[in-house]
Amino acid sequence: MRQDNRLSRVLHALLHLHQMKGPATSELIAGMLHTNASVVRRTMGGLREAGIVNATKGHGGGWQLARPLAEITLLEIYAALGSPTLFAIGIDAEETSCLLARAANQATTEALEASRRQFEDALRNVSVLDIAAGWNADMAHCAPRAG
User: Fold this and answer.
1) In 24-87, which ranges are continuous DSSP H helix?
2) Dist CA 91 CA 126 (whole Å)
3) 0.85 exceeded by the pTM?
4) Is the pLDDT assigned to residue 106 strictly greater than 60?
5) pLDDT surpasses 60 at 41
6) What's CA 105's distance to the chain center, in Å?
7) Distance (Å, rounded) from C-alpha 29 to C-alpha 10?
């Protein structure tokens, strides 16, 4: 199963945006994330709708943080990405007449739901600034400068 790496990639991009003096184009962000600009625009569009980033058009335009990193939780970002499925595990046929299959499905569903709640609680308690706070000053060289 293919992994959904959008959360870590978006965090990477937001940390770079925090270091930049001006807006970053979709092309610049795509280069940082080793993807293409259309993927960046689609992903960042969801973040814009959630109030995490702003976009300006035209020469000198691009993506910028809409709020300070301390006000952006990892849960907000996860939600803006559509709350991707955490596991490849699922239940057997949803509509089954077998009582044993129903019991197995219920146990699996309850465990997955508990895991999702725990994961979201962990994300709720971490801001993007918490991640940035771990940076060492000599790591700043990896951030491209826009503007």
Assistant:
1) 26-33, 37-49, 74-80
2) 31
3) no
4) yes
5) yes
6) 29
7) 10
Whole-number pLDDT of residue 138: 46
By C-alpha distance, which of 21, 134, 31, 125 is closest to 13? 31
| Whole-number average pLDDT of the chain | 89
In angstroms, how far is CA 119 from the centroid of its own chain? 13
Residue whose pair of structure tokens reads 């795509």 in the numeric block: 30
Structure tokens given for 24 = 């970053």
Cα 131 to chain center, whole Å? 13
Chain mean position to CA 110: 25
C-alpha–C-alpha distance, residues 130 and 123, integer Å? 11
Question: Could you tell me which of 146, 141, 20, 9 has the C-alpha nearest to residue 80?
Answer: 9
DSSP-derived letter for residue 73 is B
Residue 131 has pLDDT above 80, yes or no: yes
What are the structural domains of the chain?
Answer: 6-86+127-142 (1.10.10.10)
Helix (H, G, I), strand (E, B) or coil at 107: helix
